[in-house]
Amino acid sequence: MMPTRKYNNQNWLPSIFNDFFDNEWLTRANATAPAINVIESDKDYKVEVAAPGMTKEDFNIHISESNELVISMEKKNETKEDDHHNRRYLRREFSYSKFEQALILPEDVVKEKISANASNGVLTIDLPKRTPEEKAKVNRIIEIH
Questions:
Q1: What is the pTM assigned to this prediction?
Q2: Tens of pLDDT, residues 7-24
Q3: Which family does it belong to (predicted)?
Q4: Which fold has domain 15-138?
């Protein structure tokens, strides 16, 4: 079992993924966290983050030193009403959304081939798995001289 980082008591994924994908929120500025799907196939893992209204510029994805895929999003919106002479704001709306989540990467992910796409309110991250040939290279026997 791989160690997981715990930040609160909420579980977002079934416990079977806890060994590979840490599923606790690191930081949330708003009370609503986006829904996340993690899908596994023979060739890859896919992480889908529901993010309506967000664009690719709102996201940041990186791999941490502790082998975690860190997904963060920050969006600031400000709706301004026209300011006319001798008038003052009686209502002005601000919006701020921020979240960050770290997922521990499985050992069979090819980090150099991870890709992401934001489309139609969903951020999709593709995590390709090593092929059997690549796994054999990683598990090679070291000759002793």
A1: 0.64
A2: 444 444 444 444 444 444
A3: Belongs to the small heat shock protein (HSP20) family.
A4: Immunoglobulin-like (2.60.40)
